[in-house]
Specification:
Elements lengths: L2 H11 L3 E2 H10 L10 H13 L3 E6 L7 E6 L1 H16 L8 H6 L6 H32 L5 H31 L11 H4 L2 H7 L3 H4 L3 H8 L9
Helix pairs in contact: 1-3, 1-4, 6-7, 6-9, 6-11
């Protein structure tokens, strides 16, 4: 089951949904930033899940408009959803990819380049951490921080970011001790202009630059499906 199928199944698990309602929820919760899914794809997935007996569809008339199909999750669908979510929660973070892969190949960069990119990483991380901490404080003030899924999302995200911040601070300190002077900004010259690592350290990722991490966590919050014994 892919991310789009899991998301749609989870939305229907909250209660019977029409296709247009699912589209509205995906927009309202900002899920399009996490999913590559169009309007027609929603109905394709709904029909697919219905064929697989995870959902049932029943046409219902609303006023004078045409009858629309209302989708309801089946017992089989709920069991598959719960298994899929449990698998996601059980699996640890994958190693050997992304940031870890970059660490494994530090020798491809000069000591100054390593310091620059990791220093910018730390700056961005602290910005994200501050944003999420403020969002968590708002939940505490509003009395919504006791909800299990909200508490789990925020406390886990904050713990991961704080641990990474601690590691980065210690690593950069040790790196400066090993390679004195790497923290000093070098003058702009032709070598820097052709330095891929220098560009990487200052390049802004358009996806992350326009996304508030607190809002990203906020959009993930949705009432979990009712567990059945």
């Amino acid at each position: 089951m892919n991310d789009a199928e899991l998301t749609i199944l989870s939305l229907v698990a909250e209660g019977p949904r029409y296709g247009y309602e699912i589209q509205e929820l995906i927009d309202e919760r900002g899920l399009r930033e996490w999913l590559t899914i169009g309007f027609s794809s929603i109905y394709y997935i709904l029909n697919k899940l219905e064929r697989q007996n995870m959902l049932t569809g029943q046409y219902r008339a609303e006023g004078r408009g045409p009858a629309r199909k209302l989708y309801t999750i089946t017992e089989a669908g709920r069991g598959i959803l719960q298994t899929a979510v449990a698998d996601l929660l059980r699996q640890p973070r994958a190693l050997g990819s992304g940031f870890e892969l970059g660490l494994a190949n530090l020798r491809a960069l000069k000591p100054r380049q390593v310091y620059q990119v990791l220093h910018h990483h730390l700056i961005d991380l602290r910005h994200n951490l501050d944003s999420v901490e403020k969002a968590w404080q708002r939940h505490e003030q509003e009395g919504t921080s006791n909800a299990e899924h909200i508490q789990a999302l925020y406390t886990h995200s904050l713990a991961i970011m704080r641990a990474e911040e601690t590691w980065l601070v210690g690593f950069l300190h040790d790196w400066k001790t090993r390679y004195p002077g790497v923290e000093q900004d070098s003058p702009k010259n032709s070598e820097d202009e052709n330095d891929p690592a220098a560009h990487a350290a200052t390049r802004i990722n358009p996806r992350t630059a326009t996304t508030d991490p607190a809002k990203m966590i906020q959009r993930l919050k949705r009432r979990p499906p009712t567990a059945e014994n």
